[in-house]
Amino acid sequence: MKGVLKSVAALACIAVVCAALIVVVSLFLPKQTRTFEYGEFLGDSTAQFEEVDLMTLDADLREEGATKLTAVYKAVSGAAAGGVVLRSEAVTKYGSMEMIVGVSKDSKIVKVTAQVLKNNSFYSYPFVQENYDKFVGANPLEMKPSDLVSSTKATATKEAMLRAAGLAYKAGVALTGGAVDAPSEEVVATRDYFSKKVVAAAKIQNLDAVLAAHVTAYSVSLEDGTKGYVFVDTKVYHKFTVTIPNSGGVQPDEMTSNDANGTFYLSVTGVGITVGDGATKFAKIKTDGNANDKVFYPAATDLLEGKTVGKITVADYNGIIGAPSDALDLGAPNFSGATASGIGLVKNVNAMTEYILPYLASVRTGGGV
Amino acid sequence: MDRVKVKNTALGGLTQNPVFVLVLGMCPVIGTSTLEAGMILGVATMAVLVFSNLLISLLRKLIPDKVRIPCYIVLIATLVTLVDQFLGHFMSPDSYDKISVYVALIVVNCIVLGRAEAFASKNNPLYSALDGLSMGIGFTVVLMIYGGLRELLANGTLYGASIFGSGYVGIEMFGKTPGGFILLGLLMALFNAVYAAVKSSIEKKQKKLPIELHNDVTDTQVSMPDSTRGAETPTENAEEDNA
């Protein structure tokens, strides 16, 4: 018994001394400063940085949905002192990507770069310098995917860039003593909350082709005193197949028979407004996708603006824009791909109008699906 | 101080090379794929080896035999934590991110615990520190050669600098684990073949020498590892040294 106690006491003593040693050394180690390539992000390659403990940041500055900060470095010397460099990671179903954002001491973005960490599909495209330049001096929280250049084609990639840059910017502004402007309207739901609900709603309606949807909603008071909701940046991703015959028609210049056939992804972005009774109409609508823009009838979206929410059939759609060849001057009377993409667009619009916006309206007004 | 023992201890990193002879600590070795990583990890391991051997040797009479292994692990873990803190403070974040997982694994690296148990617990602090240094140098050199070769074959670079030019198409396999195993096996075979040839040559010379000279050579010769891997020749005189 005495031997056991002696052994335990010896072990405990060693453990205590070792723990004390670690604490003392960590306390007396000089505050870490280092110079590395991140100086370029603040325009000062000689800047010295200290690493910021992420746990000292508020939870919403560390993480937001599928986006999180992975490292923050604060410049402590030189002209850039007070600025921060932030690394943030965004995860999508197509992979994950990282943005490195430099925020100067006066809370402005100085430099941004991006890299793909994991690529699950063809949806990840090489990022271009022009996109990084778009962020400089801008507020990523106010940017839309369409603000980024088209060479980063996939909407998911653009969104991931915006999310990652937005989170980094928000944290950067907070760390440099600035303030992020809050929306003037009350935010009634988060993007992620609605995303899950909307996809669930689409599945309930057997609309499996809707891959995902993203929504940000704000409450508004209309001029007549009616309370309503504005659904900003409502997106529906729709998968559809285009088959273009190789003969019997003129192909658009930019397309070949190889890349014109296949499965495409189309998204519809709409700004809807709904009032208390759940009636919703489009204030604005546009399309985006991974194939040639001509396939997606950008002109048609203008014609859909102002239409009240309701089912729009293919016939209605053709009625709105006329025959595809006439309306869009594709020069291919039997260009079946155009029709197919038109159907894709209509189905996509239908998904938004028939299921999603009413669903959101019903959720906000207390109704059910 | 026993000259022969000092010599044998100092040559331990070669004659009892942790990677090629004792085959210990293979996890961090396989994880090393660049010259820089090999150098940093090797130096970190060497620092832990030297100080753990020193501390354990100093405390060997105070540590109860029944709890010696947990005590060694606590001491080693403390040293690894300190080394990790220093590396984290002085390395670039990207380099540290790549290496930090392996630094933490030094705690359970068989070399460190093996030397503590086989050598430091039986020898005085001076020999123990020397053993740690020798083993650490042996480990570091192997890691640098191995990491450098992998980097060269896989990327055509050495310490990040292009060696074969931009036209070089790397052998991707050597950057991955299977290629790492193959290269390690080849290096191990090469080392042991050269070592056996050198030993054989020394033995032949010994047979030709007169008795007097023969004894001198025997004192300085290097010895191949036997089945008692991890055990050390110098431990035979441990009791004398302790006294």
Give the topology string of chain A: H per helix, E per strand: HEHEEEEEHHEHEEHEEHHHH
Looking at how many chains there are and whether they match, the oligomeric state comes to: heterodimer
Identify the strand order in the major beta sheet of chain B: 1-2
User: How many beta-strand segments of chain B?
Assistant: 2
Residue fraction in strands of chain A: 25-35%
Global mean pLDDT of chain A: 65
Classify the helix fraction of chain A into a percent range. Answer: 25-40%
Approximate helicity band of chain B: 55-70%
Poorly predicted runs of chain A: 181-212, 240-265, 274-278, 290-299, 320-338, 363-369
Count of DSSP H/I helices of chain A: 10
Structural class of chain A: alpha+beta
**Count of individual helical segments of chain B:** 11
Largest sheet of chain B: 2 strands, antiparallel
Distance between the termini of chain B: 12 Å
What is the terminal separation of chain A in angstroms? 71 Å
Shape of chain B: flat
* Order of SSEs of chain B: HHHHHHHHEEHHH
What's the number of extended β-strand segments of chain A?
11
The low-pLDDT segments of chain B are 216-243
List key phrases describing it.
heterodimer, A: 369 residues, alpha+beta, five-stranded antiparallel β-sheet, 10 helices, 11 strands, B: mainly alpha, 2 strands, flat, disordered C terminus
